[in-house]
Structure of 4-deoxy-L-threo-5-hexosulose-uronate ketol-isomerase:
Amino acid sequence: MEIRYSSHPEDVKYYTTEELRDHFLITDLFQYGEIKSVYYHEDRMIVGSAMPTTAALVPEDGRQLGCAYFMERREMGILNIGGEGIVKADGAEYSLQYSDALYVGMGTKELSFSSANPADPAKFYFVSVPAHKSYECVKISKAEAIVQRAGSEAQCNTRTIFQYIHPSVCKSCQLLMGVTTLDSGSVWNAPPFHTHERRAEAFLYFDMQEEDVVFYLMGHPTQTRHLVVRPREAVLSPSWSMHGGCGTGRYSLAWAMAGENQAFGDMDAVSLADIQ
Ligand SMILES: O=C(O)C(=O)C[C@H](O)C(=O)CO
Ligand SMILES: [Zn+2]
């Protein structure tokens, strides 16, 4: 498992493009027949993907976490952005179609990912964070998520926010997870640009034309930087970094957060007048 350390805004303002990409962008997710995981020290998030083909894939053992097994002290949110897949969690089997999600509770000993059809493999994106209590596994379809409409045509940011792992949908210790989908013709998933002093966040960009990119805006609000993000790449967002982005076409993003609270709206909005 690759490790990404925390960073200080005073240091990040001197990063080159390559350093920004090395620290905050994950470019090699969704490899055929592989699990890929990145351990991010901010809120101890593990961000990863599993793309099983003919054989089931299992997360690594708990050695790197100092635990008997991967999920001993963690919970996980899984979103399928590929063909039909099956997640097995301690004997229970969950079939996930495109856009279905699964919450997996702490203490799940046997976890595996497989594809119903290796020619059209499942693409599981997962985010795992430390947990203190075991809650039951819950499958959540897009129709079961909380739906919020946001934005306006005038600002090219009309979008739908689907909150899958949210206290009103299923219990979790820290994890909040969902998907934001931009309408055709919309390219911004902000404003509001915001930080979360109390939470780290991770984003996966997907559901976009292969040739499109998203100019992801990050950094301290007075020292903005950007990352060019391509389909199925993920971004790590420390608590002090503002976030939002503009695509060369429409796209969706999966967001996941963990930290002090589970209030989706707990954002420190950055006024456009203050952004530099
Ligand atoms: O479009 C949006 O607004 C979002 O997607 C919200 C972000 O993902 C977010 O940063 C939630 O904290
Ligand atoms: Zn946010």
